[in-house]
Design goal:
- The complex is a heterodimer of chains A (381) and B (300).
- Chain A has 381 residues and is α+β, with helices and mostly antiparallel strands.
- Chain A has two domains: 243 residues, 3-Layer(aba) Sandwich (Rossmann fold), CATH 3.40.50; 121 residues, Nucleic acid-binding proteins (OB fold (Dihydrolipoamide Acetyltransferase, E2P), Beta Barrel), CATH 2.40.50.140.
- Chain A is built from 13 helices and 19 strands.
- Chain A has a six-stranded mixed β-sheet, with helices on both faces.
- Chain A is elongated.
- The two termini of chain A are 43 Å apart.
- The longest helix of chain B is centred in the first third of the chain and has 33 residues.
- Chain B is flat, with a radius of gyration of 25 Å.
- Chain B folds into two domains: 44 residues; 234 residues, MetI-like fold (Orthogonal Bundle).
- Chain B is mostly helical.
- Classes of the chains: A alpha+beta (381), B mainly alpha (300).
- At the A-B interface, strand 6 and helix 2 of A face helix 9 and helix 10 of B.
- Bound molecules: adenosine-5'-triphosphate (ATP) and magnesium ion.
Chain lengths: 381, 300
Amino acid sequence: MIDINDGAIDARGLVKQFGGHRVVGPVDLSVRPGEFLTLVGPSGCGKSTLLRLIAGLETASEGSISIAGRTVTDDPPKERDVAMVFQNYALYPHLTVAQNMAVPLRMRRLSLPQRLPFVGSLLPRSAATLAEIDHDVEQVAKSLGIAQLLSRKPAQLSGGQRQRVALGRAIVRKPRVFLLDEPLSNLDAQLRVQMRSELVQLHRRLQVTLIYVTHDQAEAMTMSNRIAVMFAGNILQIGTPEAVYDDPDHLKVASFISNPGLNTMPFAAIANTQLGRQIGAIVSGSAECTVAFRPEACTAVSSADQTDLSGRVIFCERFGAEAFAHIAVDYLEHPIIARIEPAHATRLTCEQLVRVNLDISKLFLFGPDGLRLRPRRRAAA
Amino acid sequence: MTTASTIDRPVRQYDFGTMWLLVFPATALLLAFLVIPTALVVVLSFTDYELGKEGLRYIGITNYSDMLADRVFWQSVRNTALYVALVVPGSIFIALAVALLIERRSVLARFYKVAFFLPVTATLVAMATVWEFILHPSIGLANHLLSVLRIDPIRFLSDPDWAIVSLAAIGIWQSIGFNMVLFLAGLSSIPKEIDEAAALDGAAGGIDRFMIVTWPLLGPTTLFVTITTAINAMRVFESVAVITQGGPNKATEVILYSIYLEAFQYFRTGYASALTVVFLLVTVSLIILQMRLADRKVHY
Ligand SMILES: Nc1ncnc2c1ncn2[C@@H]1O[C@H](COP(=O)(O)OP(=O)(O)OP(=O)(O)O)[C@@H](O)[C@H]1O
Ligand SMILES: [Mg+2]
């Protein structure tokens, strides 16, 4: 049974500066108990720093953090009851897998004298506690499928196995909050997909609050309850993967969560076309705004007629079930990427003239500051 | 040259001329400065050669059997062993403690590093004067401090029980700096993430962090520091030669000082060579021990 406060994380006005340079914040973030939240953003945007602030490995320059309803802003990591998996796993190289996983339990269940080498195990009640620890380690190892590796050293493990050991070390003490910093980035593509689903299942089984850092939008979209998109130290949007994908608040969010890319064009470039007039009818003040749409909002049809969005195919890419055509339009700086039927990909040839058919309801408009401009009629209704 | 001909060429066909030319400088230097002198010492150790005397005679292992029967030799072995036994742990633990303290601070770290490293660069022959003054039985600073604590003055250099301990203290003072630098290098090579993982695992206190991360991961450094300090301590000479001259009553006569006396005061070169050979054997076996351990134990 989950206590309502158990594992909730609340950050208010959180700021981190390094040498006068603001790297994170101000960030306001509420993570619900038991939630799987993904922090996603480009490299260097401060994801790891935010995670480390929550873990207590960095101290906040401003603002406050509370975990499970208790303010922990100035508490050391030990008192926050959070576990973290580092990108490079950070296993203790001189300890076996079993010993690695036992460290958090030894620290919590044994007293300082009991933890001393040699003497410690002779003290009363040590033996019983040590047996308990061994038992718990074995249980977790079994659940992660690494029971046969318990006596190995980290150097004798593959990357995927080390990953599991690092996970095991984190979950063995049943923390309230579980932080993962790009845990899959050192694995090969196939293992990464497999670990994704294992992590989701693990989260469901443990029911812990989990914050997951990644710069891979596929991981963010597939694994989490909610995703928070970060840019330059700030969270620009936070919501369910669907909400962030279908209804982005910011141009940067839309273009980061797009595969293979977001089509953008200045409104000025198309203002005099029929498309431009259609858009102008929906939103006002559009002179300096940016029109954006995803590849799947449009398609390319072979046609020699000149329309608003006509151009030449310059490149076709096909990955299995999906195919995209890159189309150069005379008056646009960047080619438009359109999703096409894979079957058509073989029929479209380079330099062929095509017409781009655009679903105008899936079009986004962003103001000069990058913020989303919503259609007028919704406000009027 | 085409690829085909490179492949066709037998791999084992070395160009011996170039090969010898390339290894010649290193080999020549090694022979001239290491192998030949060492071989000469070994040869001399089986003779009765005395510096300045004409001719020499092969006397078998007489020098070695003399040595084993010599009370002064065993005294110097005991003194050297005691000196090493005091200097190695003293220097290592103080150096490690200093390195741990310096590592965690940003202000003044540079100052402390320089301050602790100074004795390494200072010539001991010059600094010995200062030490003699500090340890002087009546006007010395050390005894002055002891008197503040109401402890009777100690004749640091003239009391046979204290003399070697005093020299060991000087030896520790001199070697801390170097060992501290080695430990600092070792500490900086410990990945930051492992320390952070330990903090999250609950190792909050200094003791836990030290036992889980620092001490085990410093293993290779500690082994290296131990062996080099031991070898250096075995070679103690300057402080003995300048401050105590092996006295009082041979209480600080160490192996190297014996070799010096035999070779350059009594001119018994043959006997001194035998002492040198024994000393060399001990040093070399220590180095071999270190390499063995480094290969086996300290690798994770
Ligand atoms: N200890 C530090 N001192 C100074 N600057 C730092 C420090 N740690 C991080 N930074 C800076 O903070 C910014 C954010 O770093 P952070 O590691 O949080 O990025 P990230 O989003 O995790 O990137 P990545 O995806 O590459 O891991 C970077 O510009 C980095 O240079
Ligand atoms: Mg990072």
